[in-house]
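Recap slide: STAS/SEC14 domain-containing protein, sequence and predicted structure.
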Amino acid sequence: MQLSEFKAAGNVLTLEVREEIRKARFKAICEDMDRATAALGTVRLVLVMRHYPSFNSAEDFYDDLRFLRLYDHAIDRVAVVCDRFWKDSWVGIFSLFSGIRMQFFEMTQVRAVTRWIQGN
């Protein structure tokens, strides 16, 4: 399975976000999700969110991750790894509207991310 936006390891897909997700990248992400879900069924995501100038509000966070709403039926869980701890509350807000199990992790918590994303 060839993916342009995600790194894949089994059913775990990792996406790094360093800037606003614009239309072309959104389309590529959706194409990758279509391929991955067709091949794997359900997937687990690790989203590495790096701070960038337009990433300053819950609305920006929601807008950049809007593809999750399209694929919530095929996503088992999402680990959001972020360099700003205060974004933890945004994960909680987003999960209220999506029904996807989401957990926030700091950049230094690599082992915890691995355990949680691989957990049952």
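The longest strand covers residues 75-82.
The mean pLDDT is 84.
(End of recap.)
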